[in-house]
Amino acid sequence: MSSQTTKACRKQTTASVSPKAARRPSGRRQQWEIKNPHAAGVDVGSTSHYVAVPPDSVPETESSVRCFEAFTEELRKLVEWLNACGVKTVAMESTGVYWIGLYQVLEEAGFEVVLVNARHVKHAPRRKTDVSDCQWLQQLHSYGLLSGSFRPSDEICRLRSLVRPRANLVSAAAAEVQHLQKALLQMNLHLHHVVSDVMGATGTRIVEAILAGQREPEALLELRDKQISKSSREQMKAALVGDYRWEHLFVLQQA
Q: How many Å from the N-terminal Cα to the C-terminal Cα in the chain?
């Protein structure tokens, strides 16, 4: 969003969007049965959110659409306005990760939040601006035409926020082990041939000693665990004779 758009939204934070921009839906709306009379719609953005409430929940002189910035204090003002308008349920699109902060604030405030898949409403004919987007979501939600995406309980969401980064870290660590082994091979150090796990106790001690400046095979051999049976002392000593080049040592240290 451009800086001009952000400034425009900032001016509209406490004041309503002009009634002309947020004109009330046509009389055709009255032909549908209202199932959620206290429904609101939110067009989620990276820096601002446009919110539409039922037209009859605000005075005639005020607009049923307002713009709030994505900052936490602005979200609290958004909640206050929804409460003042008597809103009970809110529909929003799952736009990237920008919806998460707003979703959590609304959920904690006691609103029923319907997270809508953007694909289900992106072809709607009246969605041309941020204002019409949130109005269209509010209108569809008031008719009960929107189905929410699955959102697990708060405990599961918290656990998922921890498990996913852990899986990423484990995957990244495995890739770094491969980089470490490649750096060793480029120095003609065949450590992975004489120990079962390069990142095991023996392998870690030897790699740390090499990075500390140790180059003598005999000294490195003394770091070998006595329980290692994969290779003999002579084989391991031969595997620890290498061509130590500074660029490969740098890569080894980074890995």
A: 39
Q: Which amino acid is at 80?
A: E
For residues 113 and 216, membership in a common domain is answered with no
Q: Which residues contact 63 (CB under 8 A, 6 or more apart)?
A: 16, 17, 18, 19, 21, 22
Range of the domain at 85: 3-19+32-151
Which residue in 84, 87, 137, 85 sits closest to 111, CA to CA? Answer: 87
- Same domain for 7 and 122, yes or no, is yes
For 160-169, the pLDDT digits (tens) are: 889 989 999 9
Please state, in angstroms and rounded to a whole number, the distance separating the CA atoms of residues 154 and 218.
Answer: 56
CB atoms within 10 A of CB 135: 27
How high is the pLDDT of residue 20? 53
Asked which of 151, 181, 211 is the last residue of a domain, the reply is: 151
Residues 42 and 132 in one domain: yes
pLDDT at 73: 93
Q: Give the model's pLDDT for residue 192.
A: 83
